[in-house]
Amino acid sequence: MARLAGKAALVAGGGTGIGRATAALFAAEGARVAVFGRREAPLAETVDAIRKAGGEALAVTGDVGSETDVFRFVTTAWSAWGRVDVAVNSAGIRLRAPIAQISAADFAEVLRVNLVGAFLLTKAVAPAMRASGGGSIVHIGSAMGTAATADFSPYVASKAGLHQFARAAAIELVGDRIRVNVVAPGTIATDIGQQIPAFRARMLEHRIPIGRLGRVEDVAHACLYLAADTAAYVTGAILAVDGGWTAA
After folding, report:
1. Annotated catalytic residue: which of 26, 155, 165, 245?
2. Residue 155 appears among annotated catalytic residues
3. What is the pTM of this model?
4. What is the DSSP letter of 230?
5. Any idea which of 74-88, 102-116, 201-215 has the lowest mean pLDDT?
6. CATH code of the domain covering residue 225
7. Could you tell me if residue 62 is left (phi over 0), alpha (psi between -120 and 50 degrees) or otherwise beta?
8. Torsion angle defined by CA atoms of residues 125, 114, 190 and 26, in that order, rounded to the nearest 10 degrees
9. 123 located within any domain
């Protein structure tokens, strides 16, 4: 039986990488899927792939750091399907530079997208999930939200904050039967990851106990577990999907 049959799922950042893989998997598991992001073309590609596979999907363009855009995303899905059961926040940006070279504006922009965006999506979907009888919110965090890395200070700060925000939201929303969890990937072979030089990729693999970079499907399946009713007793969790990197 499809694990998300009859459910409506929202995926912010659903145009590429982890978000696209998650949207496709959710659709294959029976969900109607709404994807959200800044660029129209990648979103259209995700929707087209889902529809060709026999699923139901729609796209909304916007900025996850804009309260107006996020509210429009949620209300569009609600208008189409009359319910919201699952939300995955995969939208995010990275900035790699030493602290001395980062402007306050650039630091704030990473926090706006990665942390404020998580807050806005959670705030927007909670009433819709409450009206639907409950739901599951899954935020994409990072191994770097647990173990810091040089030259990524805004990203590390944003993901550590995201982890703690999700825990606070989990406690606050539990009475509404809304679960909030985090999937914390390590190094994943996304489009951004493909830009890593081959020698550095091999170095990274040697530091990962499982011995390879992660795949977007690894993260998508973790999101599916947390989204489905089989995880009904799981909330406030930070699920590491990093090949053992943070454990080591």
Report:
1. 155
2. yes
3. 0.95
4. G
5. 201-215
6. 3.40.50.720
7. left
8. -10
9. yes
